[in-house]
HTH-type transcriptional repressor YtrA (Halobacillus karajensis), 250 residues
Amino acid sequence: MFELDVRSRKPIYEQLVEKLKQLIINDVLKEDEKLPSVRELAQQLTINPNTIQKAYRELESQGYIYSLKGKGSFVHPSGKVNNEEELKKVREELKKLFAEAIYLGVSSEEIAALLREVEGGQEND
Amino acid sequence: MFELDVRSRKPIYEQLVEKLKQLIINDVLKEDEKLPSVRELAQQLTINPNTIQKAYRELESQGYIYSLKGKGSFVHPSGKVNNEEELKKVREELKKLFAEAIYLGVSSEEIAALLREVEGGQEND
DNA sequence: CTACTGTATTAGGAGTGATAATACAGTTAA
DNA sequence: TTAACTGTATTATCACTCCTAATACAGTAG
């Protein structure tokens, strides 16, 4: 499915969250698609099931997946997330990153171009 | 100068880096202005000098300040940073955050509006 | 019932964050 | 030169987090 950098300074569960987020956002994992079970993914990646669970719990709290006891974990449909707390965080992050980028010399035109680039590759309902 | 949240899950030195970055970006700390010395700031904030140094080292590696042995640490002039590694990181972060925001339901129009908002409050050379 | 799912808890080892105490090196002013 | 600043480096110690390991419980499906 993907690789993890065990010797990285970043925690494994955070790397997992990021990678799965990318797969969900880029529609590799479709709406309501079943994710690998905690134990199955743990075996595939040769890491502990608890670490997987921690990543899934984080993804659920951020609104990217939902979990049903006894059934599995599934991709949360885009747009129907409605996680006001996460939205607030993302807006704050955007503003902070904009100020940072501009300070470092990235023009607002280039930033807008990056946005259009990402926008093109998305297509949401 | 500012406050830190010791009982936060975020490391103190990272909080320091963020706060100082904000002060520099928002021009509260002017170009080439001298920052408090490692020991002085440590005393003011009641934290260990080594923690301050770690934050300063990080800020220097990111291009926000420069340090001169025996003299002090100073604000690196905006635009003259020229830290290609940091620029690359920031561009990657922007793209990742754009995809994330759009997935969560933030329209690209709103993102562009946030950019203009930040852009207005900056004014760089 | 059996074999899957998610979820929770406890325990232990490894690594990081923060503190403390020094030490060394370069600058500046008396 | 000396004294008092600066940044920088090292070592040791403690607490906390990350990760693993081993269970256990609860809900679902055949």
The radius of gyration of chain A is 17 Å. Residues 9, 37-39, 50, 53, 56-57, 67-73 of chain A lie near DNA strand C (CB under 10 Å from a C1'). Residues 84-120 of chain A form one domain.
